[in-house]
Amino acid sequence: MGKLNLAVYWASSCGGCDIAIVELGEHLLELAQVADIVFWPAATDFKYDDVEAMEDGAIDVTLFNGSIRTEEDEHIARLLRRKSKVLVAFGSCSMEGCIPSLSNIKGIDYALNRAMFENPSTVNPEKVLPQRRFGMPEGELILPGLCNQVRTLAQVVPVDYKVPGCPPHYEQVWKVMTAIIENKLPSRGGLLGVDSRTVCDQCPRKREGKIRVERFFRPHEIVPDPDRCLLEQGILCAGPATHAGCGALCIEANMPCRGCYGPPDGVVDQGAALLGAIVASFEGKSDAEIRQVLSTIVDPLGTFYRFSFADSFLQQLKANPEEAGRICASQADGSEEEVEQ
Ligand code: SF4
Ligand code: SF4
Ligand code: SF4
């Protein structure tokens, strides 16, 4: 059998998912013996034209990280879908929108306003927004337009597998690579590199299954008992509603799970599942008392949906799929045909 053709792409990404692949370290040498990297913009000097020139289906597997935030992201997602036999949504941004999709709650204009005008570290007295086209003596500069909403990869093109995590843990990444190399990928549609439990199931802390606290705390506000469940001490931990796969990394560091591995098998909406698990664990409190305790959670929407907002029921209620992909009005200062769709 010849070598595999692998591609890695970052759409609207922080780069952490690419680092997770680099963290494979010496395994990369093993990978190089059986696979050619045919496209990986974060690490190698391939151009989009190189991908355009490939036959359809020429790439065996593409690991696609980052969310779909710009028209360029969408264009490359469609291109790589066409060129790849297997397309993997790699990491939380690509799989479920991750933290960037929290900007969908208030919308792109609000996000631009905050980022460009109100951010204390931004000096922009003339209130300049990044425009899509800008004339320079050397020629016209073109920025990809921002879409109205952050979308997951699967909201734009069909996806074969998903790899959760922000970023995926490197041991999990190697499991995924091994499955690819050994041609042992499971039937399409599922998660790769995880086990079927929750973070709570992997957590070594003592858990009674009962919450008795009068309020919730942010992690810096108390020093928790290192042996007891953080949630039961009033630190909001997403372990009950988060897929296992990281080995309960944050818990080991005495920090709560924030939910980056997404919902467990069979759960569609991670935020609703977490809220349900918490409410069901309160002991000896009336509905009004439970509401009072829950009201002490800072930024509940951002906390319960920190990683999964784009894939949540709330997003589905809010979003119009056609509008979500349109270029936001604040930026639409040029012809939309410029970047091929
Ligand atoms: S999933 Fe996390 S690490 Fe990966 S690109 Fe998104 S923010 Fe970065
Ligand atoms: S809620 Fe958090 S701290 Fe408690 S058992 Fe689950 S993962 Fe561990
Ligand atoms: S403990 Fe939770 S937040 Fe931390 S890496 Fe694991 S899944 Fe992600």
Characterize the main sheet.
Answer: 5 strands, parallel
SSE order in H/E notation?
Answer: EHHEHEEHEHHEEEEHHHHHHHH
Low-confidence spans: pLDDT under 50, at least 5 residues?
334-341
Tally of strands: 9
Strand order of the largest sheet: 2-1-3-5-9
Radius of gyration: 22 Å
Distance between the termini: 35 Å
State the CATH topology of the domain at 4-99 and 149-181.
Rossmann fold
Mean pLDDT: 93
Structural class of the helix and strand makeup?
alpha/beta
**Tertiary shape:** globular
CATH class placement of the domain at 4-99 and 149-181: Alpha Beta
Any guess at the CATH architecture of the domain at 4-99 and 149-181?
Answer: 3-Layer(aba) Sandwich
Q: How much of the residues is beta strand, in percent?
A: 5-15%
- The CATH homologous superfamily of the domain at 4-99 and 149-181 is termed NADH:ubiquinone oxidoreductase-like, 20kDa subunit
Task: Set down the secondary structure blueprint.
Layout: E1 4-10, H1 16-22, H2 27-34, E2 35-39, H3 48-52, E3 59-65, E4 68-70, H4 71-83, E5 84-90, H5 92-96, H6 108-118, E6 133-136, E7 139-142, E8 146-151, E9 161-163, H7 170-181, H8 199-202, H9 249-252, H10 270-281, H11 287-294, H12 300-304, H13 313-318, H14 321-324
Parallel strand pairs: 1-2, 1-3, 3-5, 5-9
Antiparallel strand pairs: 4-8, 6-7
The structure holds iron/sulfur cluster (SF4) (3 copies).
